[in-house]
């Protein structure tokens, strides 16, 4: 941000927007999916569906500049178990995946040296993930 608000460490409107998209958006999609899944005929094992939420390694290990993002992904992690418990009576499973560092257009905009250093932080394999 290049306006005066860039002097504020964590502008509330930015924080709220990230939570609106990542957390409330994920909750809303899960809610709507669960409504449809609950109406489906159960499989032989009682399962009617599975909701897969996407968090991030930032939910557990956020970095500088990731306050809002980390909080939003941490909220997704936090709602997974209670949601799974609530929806189990309808035959719906709820899980969350937390991907690490992936080579994305945003990450590729960083200098190559920075990308290499980020890749070295990954234990095994010691590289950035490839979404392809």
UniProtKB/TrEMBL annotation:
User: Superkingdom of this entry's organism?
Assistant: Eukaryota
The answer to whether UniProt assigns keyword Oxidoreductase to this entry is yes
Which InterPro entries does the record match to this protein? NAD(P)-bd_dom_sf, Sc_DH/Rdtase_CS, SDR_fam
Q: Provide this UniProt record's keywords sorted from A to Z.
A: Oxidoreductase
Alphabetical list of PANTHER family matching this protein: 17-BETA-HYDROXYSTEROID DEHYDROGENASE 14-RELATED (PTHR43658:SF8), SHORT-CHAIN DEHYDROGENASE/REDUCTASE (PTHR43658)
Q: Which GO terms describe its molecular function?
A: oxidoreductase activity
By its UniProt entry, which Pfam families does this protein fall under?
adh_short
Q: Quote the protein name from its UniProt record.
A: Uncharacterized protein
